[in-house]
Structure formats: structure tokens, C-alpha cells
Amino acid sequence: MLHRRFISARYGAAHANSTSPHHDLMISKLENSFPLSAEEKQALLELPIQIVDIKPHQDIVKMGDKPSQCCLLLEGFSCVYKLSLEGKRQIMTMHIPGDIPDLQSLHLEIADINIASISACKVGYIQHKDLHRLCERYPRLTSAFWRETLVDAAIFREWLLNIGQREGYSRIAHLICELMMRLKAVGLTENNTFNMPVTQAELADATGMTPVHVNRVLQALRTDGLIISNKKQITIPDWQKLTEAGEFDPLYLHLNEKKVS
Amino acid sequence: MLHRRFISARYGAAHANSTSPHHDLMISKLENSFPLSAEEKQALLELPIQIVDIKPHQDIVKMGDKPSQCCLLLEGFSCVYKLSLEGKRQIMTMHIPGDIPDLQSLHLEIADINIASISACKVGYIQHKDLHRLCERYPRLTSAFWRETLVDAAIFREWLLNIGQREGYSRIAHLICELMMRLKAVGLTENNTFNMPVTQAELADATGMTPVHVNRVLQALRTDGLIISNKKQITIPDWQKLTEAGEFDPLYLHLNEKKVS
DNA sequence: CGAGCGCTTGATGCTAGTCAAAGCTGGTGG
DNA sequence: CCACCAGCTTTGACTAGCATCAAGCGCTCG
């Protein structure tokens, strides 16, 4: 059973400075690349969010669903995946806290993907109707959300290059670089170390490889001194070398573009 | 040299029924999944478009560019691609008439992709500022354009599944199914036949294979009776069998969802 | 009619897949 | 607190799909 908590997330005008950690996560993410006015932030703070805890490896959205809400990832890792007819799974992106995995459902009625937790997660559900109302009133927020979906698409494209043209060693290195960079942007790294609660089987599904081969590549990366892994902790001793191995260029993440619309 | 024609695409209110084939292409595409009011259509018709002819295999947008306009593909095929450091090319999607290949540039300042023609093309450039103004005034058009970029993303995801998890034979079959379906939606097929001005080397770049292997797979598809190819014409004698071979399910294209926002 | 591009074919080898089994580890219950 | 179990990781042996290299063929267009 899911553990559900209904959070009263409405703040009166008198509490303009009130904050909620959940809303702040979303706001700081949007603001990272798109400056927001006080009024726009206030409007975001007033969004009702329903908090739900999710267990590891559990579906959040299933292909064919017609969701009436978007989910904001608050804690943990989740992923988007599809299955081939033979049951092979392709993970298309991983989401970290602050991401809105199915923002696309705002304008695509039927989900064409599955979304699942990787680790235990906490997600916040936001009703489509609330988001639509917000976008109507604040066109700049529409742009900010639209932009988020465009960055998601840029990540899919980079993964296509990764899987289509690079060999196993580079693919894994690239994925680790991306996670490092994105986690750093939301303050979830420390001394080139971060938590990666991802099994080798999941890495395999994300890189189009087999678990056996992922295991061997990880060993190679370790012996080459590109990563140090301890349980689910990854440390990157030499960022330069890892980015070279993964051909990693963070342009596609569109972090910190100074966007002044 | 590019052959440039500046088309005066403005129509007065007195010409509410005036049409331009270029604008109509865009309008009918948007309307396919998102009904538009007469007023919205009129506003689209008034968009200034600058028509340019492009030769085959020519870059239209380059990584690092900061475009101030979007291009609407009017004739021919184009593609989005990226290069790995070793110079290997991954094509991420193909565009057909009616598509807007770099709509993303509306909200992502720096292009993280290259866009190139495949065949000879005719494109129409639309200034960002005109699109921004349009979106401000007609929020439903914002939604329609946003939705277009979401369908693009859905195609990237399906290609990830295709390249990551399916073998060569299925990949090519899937790609042909997708092109058939999308071309049909804009009326560019006839009796299960369509024009595919794509070289085997480009098919290879699109599917993460080598040209040699693409050649062998195409021969297999032909001898299995799944496709008939004559020059650049492709005929699909048995749609059912081809979709099975390619595991093709058109859900991800989000065609004809009755969207009544 | 020759040049160039794209298509086709053959021989060979590597990357990564498959199958199988054994070690590890963390969580659970007695 | 220890024993056990399940899921994850690691290892080995073998194989397949696809890449690579190389050369010849056949259009089409100037």
C-alpha cells in the first residue's frame, strides 16, 4: 500500500514568505535556467501537492494511462522505460529530485511510456487542472515548464547518440557524468561523490547492454581509476578523465543558460 | 548559394479565406490533433514566412548556433543528428513536410543538435519573435506547438527502444513503418507506396548500424516480402507483417488523439 | 564516356550477448 | 544474535550479431 499524505499547500497572501521544501525544490529547479518574479514564485507555492511514498521498483505511470496529474519527484531516483515485445526493457532517462517525469502528460492524453521508481521515492502529485490554470495566468511559467520538457527531449537525443554510436565503456562513463552533473545542479553531490541507487541490471537497461557486460565495464572503469564505487556511492577521482572516456559535453543539459525572456 | 524568396504572407481581414499552401501545411498538421478556431487559423495565416530552397545533405542548423528563427519543413526530408568525437553520426529523427524541426529553439537558446537536409528541401523560416507574439495572444496555439515538441520527444524515446533493444532487422522495419505512418498522415503516400530519398548510409546512421549491414538487412526484408523497393520508392505489400517484424505500435506518434482542451 | 557516388558482396574479427553457476550482502525471522 | 533467503554481483566458457576492411559493380550526371 502507498502511504498517502494530503498536504495543505495553500498559503495566504499574508504568508508571502512561507515556503515548503517540496515547492522550493521545483521553484529552484525552474529558476536555475529561467528567472521568476516574486509573484510567479508565489503562484507556484500555492499549488496543491499531494505527497506519496513509493517503494523501489514500482510503476508510477503505465503505458496507456490517461493521467489527470503530473508527478514531481521529491526524493529518490525514478526512470522512464518501454518494453519490447520480447520483454526487453529500455530505460530512456533517469529522474532525480526536482524533475517532473511526466510533464508531457499535460498535453499528451495517453501515456506512451512507463515510469517506475528505481530507489524508494517520494513524489508529489500536481493536478493537471491546477497546472493549466497556472499556465493560463502566468505565460512565463508556461515557457518555463515547456522548457523543462525540451531539456528532457535533449537528454533523450544525447542518449540516442550514446547508445547508437558509443561502445559500452563510453556509454557507462557518459551516464555517470550526466548523473553527476545533474545531481550537482540540485546540490546532491559532495566532494565528487554521489548516491547512485541503481542496480547493474538497471544500468544495463539504460545503456542497451547486458548486466554481465555492465559488470565487466564497471570493473574496467574501476581499475582504470575513473570511478570509485562503494555500495551505492560513486566517487569520481578525475572528472577530466571520465568526461573524456564518456565524450561528455554538458551543453545538452542546458544548465544555467541565462534566459531572460 | 541558397535561393531565397521573400514571401509577403500577410493577409488582411478582408481576406479571411485566403490561403497559402505553406501556412496550410502547418495548420493542417496542428489541427490533426488539436482543433483550432477560425481566429487562431487566421492568426497562423498571418505569420510571415521566408521560403528558402536547400540542397541535399546540407546543414540547416549547427550545434552551438543561437537561432532567432524556427524552420518549417515544406518539401523534402531533413534530419536531426549529432556526431561522436570519433566522427560517427547518429541521426535522431527524420522530418517530413509539415514538421518544424527546431521548434525547440524557441526556448533553448543554444542549439545542441545539427539539422541537415536529406533530400533537396524547401523550408520556411519563421521568426521567434513572431511565434512568441502569437503564443502570447493565443494560449491554445502555445499548447499546440508545445504538444508538437512533446511528440518529437516521444519519437526520440521510441528510437531509443528501437536502437537499444531491437536487432537490425527489426530496427529497419520499424523505421519504415514510422515513415509510412507519418507520411500517410500528411497525405504523402499512395497505395502503400511512398518516396524515401534516404541513402543506405543515412539509414545506417539512423539505426546505429553500418551501411554494409543495412544493405544486408534490406535484402532480407525484400526476400521476405516485407518491402518492395524501386529506386527511392518503397512499397509495403503486407503492412501487418512489416509491423510485426518492426514491433511497430503507432501509439507514440499520438496521431488523431481527439484533444479538446 | 568517364567520374563519383551509392549499392553489393566476401572474408575476417571483435564487441557484446547468452548460458550457467558460484560468491556476496543485506534484510528477515526465529 | 545468528541462520537463512533473495536479490545482486562476479566469473567463466562459448557464441552470435554486427563491424571492419577491401574490392567490384552499376547507376546517373556532367
TrEMBL record, chains A, B:
Tree of life domain: Bacteria
Keywords noted in UniProt: DNA-binding, Transcription, Transcription regulation
Single annotated GO MF: DNA binding
InterPro entries: cNMP-bd_dom (IPR000595), cNMP-bd_dom_sf (IPR018490), HTH_CRP (IPR012318), RmlC-like_jellyroll (IPR014710), WH-like_DNA-bd_sf (IPR036388), WH_DNA-bd_sf (IPR036390)
PROSITE patterns, per the entry: HTH_CRP_2
SUPFAM superfamilies for this protein: cAMP-binding domain-like, Winged helix' DNA-binding domain
Name of the protein described by the UniProt record: Crp/Fnr family transcriptional regulator
Organism from which the protein derives: Vreelandella sulfidaeris
